[in-house]
Design a protein that fits this description.
single chain, 21% strand, 45% helix, globular, two-stranded antiparallel sheet, alpha+beta, 10 strands, 211 residues
């Protein structure tokens, strides 16, 4: 279903000519998105999937998710998260960014060198104590100023654990039932041990809207 619904958009985004660049387009796939690296930007397309914990099954839901991602991630990376852009059906029946009715939506981001990825920094031994301290201070300051959300507790985490198990059932060829069930049992046992503290935190310590 996903392939049929988005195959034309994926083909359009895979062509360098769609962006007016000369170099080949690089593509990175995840379970919920496809990212196309073209020229100075990265273009993130939500995949038309529906999991227990997210629903990108329609173009409208993908638009809403793109706009939420832009709003939330601009809090920490305003120079990287640029805009939400539509892929449009042009008057001639093809796809373009310029004119026509929207058929799908993208988050457009500023590209940066792969060497600046934290894993690459760590791999070359440059993730030293001063950098780790600076990162930790920045994250702590962000958490302190993030919007308060009254949520969480044992019940919310139980839903996450059950949702993860439901997702595993959809790929039983990769994640066999016995290990997946064992993981859920261990997770629930740990959750029950921590439940009083989690519920107390939900009541008394306001949660924050972070990632």
């Amino acid at each position: 279903m996903e392939q049929d619904e988005q195959s034309e958009v994926v083909a359009f985004l895979s062509r360098a000519a769609s962006y007016g660049v000369a170099d080949a387009v690089e593509r990175i796939d995840t379970h919920a998105a496809r990212v196309f690296l073209a020229g100075p930007c990265a273009y993130k397309l939500k995949r038309a999937v529906h999991y227990p914990y997210l629903d990108f099954s329609t173009a409208e839901k993908r638009r809403q998710a793109c706009e939420a991602e832009l709003r939330l991630n601009r809090r920490t990376a305003p120079d990287l998260y640029l805009e939400v852009r539509a892929v449009r059906r042009d008057p001639g029946g093809g796809l373009s960014f310029a004119q026509g009715e929207p058929v799908d939506w993208l988050v457009v981001m500023q590209r940066f060198p792969a060497r600046d990825l934290l894993a690459e920094v760590a791999g070359r031994g440059a993730l030293d104590a001063p950098l780790v301290r600076a990162l930790a201070d920045r994250i702590a300051a962000f958490h302190a100023g993030a919007e308060i959300r009254r949520s969480g507790g044992e019940e919310a985490l139980r839903r996450v654990i059950d949702g993860n198990r439901a997702s595993m059932e959809q790929v039983a060829d990769l994640l066999p039932g016995a290990p997946a069930d064992a993981l859920r049992r261990r997770s629930i046992a740990l959750l029950e041990d921590l439940a009083p503290g989690l519920d107390r935190r939900a009541r008394e310590g306001p949660g924050r809207q972070c990632h």
